[in-house]
Specification:
The chain is an alpha/beta fold and 462 residues long. The chain is built from 13 helices and 18 strands. The protein is globular, with a radius of gyration of 23 Å. The termini are far apart. Bound molecules: 5'-deoxyadenosine and iron/sulfur cluster.
């Protein structure tokens, strides 16, 4: 049977979709190839969130298709957000591509693949967006680690997005919000748990909107903690049903979802990790309104204070867009101030990229590239200083680390992540394996990395 390799761009949801696809293909007898040179089928799972992400995937499939001259019979397919956005238009950009399958049609890949293996090219399927609110058929799947050795797992609980931030392509490529049933989510998390995974992230574009639309909490699942909101109830349900699942995370957050119940769930359910990715996007109220984010900087900072007051040691990370249309120097300075006040542990900074069909693409893209780059650099430097201060203050304290394996930078060292989702680097010891949890003491710190030593229990200690 033919072998396949999936190259994934974009967010964790794409990682999860690639795992689902991988498992489907493995179940059909295809073999997973860890390296693309040896694969008979290469599938690129693409992202549309910024122009650069699309350029990368387009460049990749272009290259792969040109390799066909020396690798006859090679099947090259495109799936994911860019496939959904471009549809058959992609064949004008990359002639010879075997197939293009959008986010709503990924369950059709196996049958499309068969046609492609028989030599057909230019097959396009993007499915239909329905507004029914019911989870689509393609998602009751198990994700698992797709045959790769992974210590963490991702489970999509909320598909699509209804926020319609003015810069964002996601609602166009992933459709309306649809929540999966708690039982369906549990089944998938349980599958991961049974495969040995102890750290699971629940995914949604705006995950705290889980259960807000076209959904009612099923009868027969009580809430011992007395939660009324569906997302805290979901957290409580998963944690209660799988008490040995050590870590539960969720992403991405939105300040409107930082309700009293959510904070109570984070504070009182021990498996929920003290980390939240809470995209700010901008610290200027004027820009936030033009982005249609649904909060102002004061409301954002209130959400941060509430979290810090109730969830000890919580790490908060964020996304920022610089150079949004009309962003002035003083708007930018507001962002710097709010970032400082929020005390982010880490920040992902992006230059605004107009996405076709979004409202912001019609606004004048008036911050030039050089200025976007400068603002990006300033925020990264600010973040480095902030990250260094925060991480240095942790030196001497203990932390629990989920071991991932040899560090990417230096194979003699190993790395893992703690509950705050910080990368922890350490010297490995005899018998260590990926998936172990280990208590460590932090000995050194960089802006985005902690260095630690294993805590050893000394004989004779009380
Ligand atoms: N331009 C730049 N960055 C964007 N993001 C989303 N859309 C755009 C865009 N058009 C960023 C946001 C989001 C992250 C995933 O990508 O910061 O949180
Ligand atoms: Fe990219 Fe957004 Fe699609 Fe994720 S959902 S792959 S970030 S466009």
């Amino acid at each position: 049977m033919a072998s396949f390799h999936i190259k994934t761009y974009g967010c964790q949801m794409n990682v999860r979709d690639s795992e689902v696809l991988s498992n489907r293909l493995l179940a059909l007898g295809y073999r997973l190839s860890e390296n693309e040179e040896a694969a008979d089928i290469i599938i690129v799972n693409s992202c549309s969130v910024r122009g650069k992400a699309e350029d990368k995937a387009l460049g990749k499939i272009g290259l792969l298709c040109s390799e066909r001259r020396i690798r006859p019979g090679l099947v090259v397919g495109l799936v994911g957000c860019m496939a959904q956005r471009l549809g058959s238009g992609v064949f004008n950009k990359v002639p010879g591509l075997s197939f293009c399958v959008g986010t709503r049609a990924e369950h059709l890949v196996p049958e499309i693949l068969e046609r492609a293996i028989n030599g057909e090219t230019g097959i396009c399927e993007t499915g239909e967006f329905t507004d029914s609110g019911t989870p689509p058929p393609e998602h009751p799947e198990f994700s698992g680690s797709g045959g790769c050795r992974a210590v963490t797992g991702f489970v999509t609980v909320l598909l699509g997005c209804d926020r319609r931030c003015t810069y964002c392509i996601v609602p166009d490529v992933r459709g309306h919000e649809r929540s999966r049933s708690p039982q369906n989510v549990l089944e998938e998390v349980r599958g991961l748990y049974e495969s040995g995974i102890r750290d699971v992230t629940l995914l949604g574009q705006s995950v705290m909107n889980y259960g807000k639309r076209g959904f009612s909490w099923p009868d027969g699942i009580p809430s011992p903690g007395g939660y009324n909101e569906p997302f805290p109830r979901l957290l409580e349900y998963i944690a209660g049903m799988l008490p040995s699942l050590k870590r539960i995370r969720f992403t991405s957050g939105h300040p409107c979802g930082v309700t009293d119940e959510l904070v109570r769930a984070m504070a009182s359910i021990p498996q929920i990790c003290p980390h939240l990715h809470l995209p700010l996007q901008s610290g200027s109220d004027r820009v936030l309104a033009r982005m249609r984010r649904g909060y102002n900087s004061g409301e954002y900072l209130n959400a941060v204070s509430k979290l810090r007051a109730n969830v000890p040691g919580i790490a908060i990370t964020t996304d920022i867009i610089v150079g949004f249309p009309g962003e002035t120097e003083s708007d930018f300075e507001c962002t710097r101030r709010v970032m400082d006040e929020a005390g982010f542990d880490n920040s992902f900074i992006f230059k605004f990229s107009p996405r076709p069909g979004t409202p912001a693409a019609l606004m004048p893209d008036d911050v030039d590239e050089e200025e976007k780059l400068r603002r990006n650099k300033v925020l990264l430097e600010d973040q480095d200083k902030r990250g260094q201060t925060i991480n240095s203050s942790l030196i001497g304290s203990e932390t629990n680390v989920l071991v991932e394996g040899p560090s990417l930078r230096n194979g003699n060292r190993w790395s893992g992540r703690n509950g705050q989702n910080k990368i922890v680097v350490f010297e490995p010891w005899d018998g260590i394996s990926a998936g172990d949890f280990a208590d460590m003491v932090i000995t050194d710190a960089h802006p985005q990395t902690l260095f630690a030593e294993r805590v050893t229990v000394k004989a004779g200690c009380p």
